[in-house]
Amino acid sequence: MSKNKLSKGQQRRVKANHQRRLKTTAEKADYDDNLFGETSEGIVISRFGMHADVESADGSVHRCNIRRTIRSLVTGDRVVWRPGKDAADGVSVKGIVEAVHDRASVLTRPDFYDGVKPIAANIDQIVVVSAILPELSLNIIDRYLVACEAQDIEPLIVLNKIDLLDDDGLRFVNEQMDIYRNIGYACCWFPVGLRTALSRWKRP
């Protein structure tokens, strides 16, 4: 005896029940609250997959899982998170990001699938770093300045490896930077070893 085929309405109900069971299973498989400590405030300093590194108020960095209910999380987000406790078997448990505060600003880029994708949040300043060799690219600097202006974020133009220029090259670069200084952009430059130079430099 042949089986009766399901009607379209029955097929929809079967599919809906299946999705509901999947959702219930996923929620049950979510993280056990008993594995985590009290909530605290923090800032996301990096994000990869379903994990993020969160910097706490004391400056320490904690690897955290991300709740499935959080739809978007990027570097710079201010979050509510909980540290992980050591499990009974001695295994260290990652912390967990519980919620994300509203963003004061967000830097985005075009994305083929999502249209516009956020890449960083709550940015106070963008440092546009460009090397003067093999060639100073004003086009790249201009593109970043446009992004800064679009988000009302203060830019700082930094030229690296400036000590590799001779007098003529230094004069030329200084003239190019005058273009930006004359319209209100701050510019500075450093010798080879930018990281060391930046560690000694303090903004006035």
Automatic annotation (TrEMBL):
The gene is yjeQ_1. Its EC number is 3.6.1.-. InterPro entries: NA-bd_OB-fold, P-loop_NTPase, Ribosome_biogen_GTPase_RsgA, RsgA_GTPase_dom. Residues 10-23 have a biased composition (Basic residues). It is an enzyme of class 3 (hydrolase). GO terms for molecular function: GTP binding; GTPase activity. Residues 1-24 are annotated as: Disordered. The keyword Hydrolase applies. Keywords: Hydrolase. Residues 121-204 form the EngC GTPase domain. The lineage of its organism: Bacteria, Pseudomonadati, Pseudomonadota, Gammaproteobacteria, Enterobacterales. This is Ribosome-associated GTPase. PROSITE patterns: ENGC_GTPASE.
